[in-house]
Amino acid sequence: MGRLTRAEVQEMNRRKVLEAAREEFGERGFRDAKIDRIAERAGLTRGAVYSNFPGKRALYFAVLADLAVRGAVGPPADSVGTVREALGVLARNRVARFPLSGEESAENPARDLPSVVLADAQTREPYAQLLKLDAIVLGLALEGLAAGRRGGGGRLVPVAETVLTLLHGADQLAAAAPGFGDPFQVVAACEQLGGLASEGAAGEWAPPHLPYVARARPVDEAWAPPEGVTDALRGEAVGLGEDGVVAVLGLHRLEAVEETVRAAPAGQVVTVVLVTGEPGELGPLARLTVAELGVSMRQAFPRGVWPGVRVVHDEAGVLAGVVGVSGVSDATECAVRVEGGRVVARGEGRGAGYAVGVGGG
Q1: C-alpha distances out from residue 149 to 81, 195, 200, 348, Å
Q2: Listed residue (277, 225, 230) closest to 249, CA to CA
Q3: pLDDT-derived band of residue 102, with 50, 70 and 90 as boundaries?
Q4: Which of 61, 131, 198, 228 fits a disulfide with 284 by CB distance 3.0 to 4.6 angstroms?
Q5: How many CA atoms lie within 13 A of 38 on its CB side?
């Protein structure tokens, strides 16, 4: 057998660190876990751990992201037909992961995620926006179900936000006080929220105020996206050559996904490129959240009602550079519209995705 390349050795060491860290965090929790013990478990030096991960929190997020990506497999649902049924499936699969005892809770590496996120403003705002992305994608899928059965409907992103609030709260309470509450009642409550869809109580979407959104600039530029791009939501390799909108969004601006999707021409795909100024730490947090969203989508929704939005992680800023963003941050907001293999419109700043979607349509 030939010698391993430098890249292969680095990947092997990274896998060793992740496995050792999973065991350490599972046994001791985030607070009491030690980098020295993780290095010893992995059979590596402390320096080797830090050469792969900038700190303990970044390593913790990477462990959870790795577990989530491993679990993001399986075919999409094919028998869910109503909003109520989809919410029921979503809730049942979520509460099935709730700990039933204190020992079971203690063995779960993810048990400390809420406290780790809350401990620092650097993680709180991106995490809130990542959950906003969850609610937008789930809400748009619910709208697809509602429209298919009723020939139309209101905005259901608020319903998705309420369901996620209930499930996240119940999850945290189950970890803090295992055995408290009835998980079946949590499921029933989520199903009842589906009634908001049939009653049209969720309201309609209002576009952003045009005076505060700069118009997109018409351009005629070459479009040469990189190959090997993966849609993290579906776990599939995708090409970016078709007509559509590509929006580069920092982790503080993910709420802009909804206005981008709603403004895009009918039938065109919106590709959301996630970037961050802290890729070593916030990149894994984004991967964790999107992977869990993909699991929920596969469990609860037939592929036919998935919204026309793809999510691409771009921690190195490669795709952002192709779009024309020279430097990324968590506040980045830029979008282009592609038609016929050319970039035909460009927008920057707040509302860029919306401006590109409605401009020149």
Answers
A1: 8, 14, 13, 38
A2: 277
A3: low
A4: 61
A5: 34
| SS3 of the chain: helix, strand, coil, percent, to 5 | 55, 10, 30
- Please write the tens of the pLDDT for every residue from 238-297: 989 899 999 999 999 999 999 999 999 988 999 999 999 999 999 999 999 999 999 999
Q: Are 284 and 62 in contact (CB under 8 A)?
A: yes
Dist CA 329 CA 324 (whole Å): 14
Number of residues that this document lists for the chain: 361
Question: Token pair of 190, please?
Answer: 């989520």
Q: Please give the mean pLDDT across all residues of the chain.
A: 88
Q: List the end-to-end C-alpha distance of the chain, in Å, as a whole number.
A: 58
pLDDT at position 258: 96
User: Which stretch of DSSP H or E encloses residue 200?
Assistant: none
Q: Judging by DSSP bridges, how do beta strands 217-222 and 229-231 pair with one another? A: unpaired
What's the whole-model pTM score? 0.92
Tell me the sheet residues that pair with 347: 335
Using alpha carbons, select from 284, 249, 296 the residue that is nearest to residue 52: 284
Confidence at 361, pLDDT banded by 50, 70, 90 = very low
Q: Domains of the chain, with CATH numbers? A: 6-52 (1.10.10), 83-199 (no CATH), 210-358 (3.40.30.10)
Pairing of strands 269-275, 309-313: parallel
Q: How many CA atoms lie within 13 A of 117 on its CB side?
A: 22
Phi/psi region, residue 268 (left: phi>0; alpha: psi -120 to 50; beta: rest), is beta
- Cα 333 from Cα 352, distance rounded (Å): 6
Mean pLDDT, range 3-18, rounded to an integer:
88
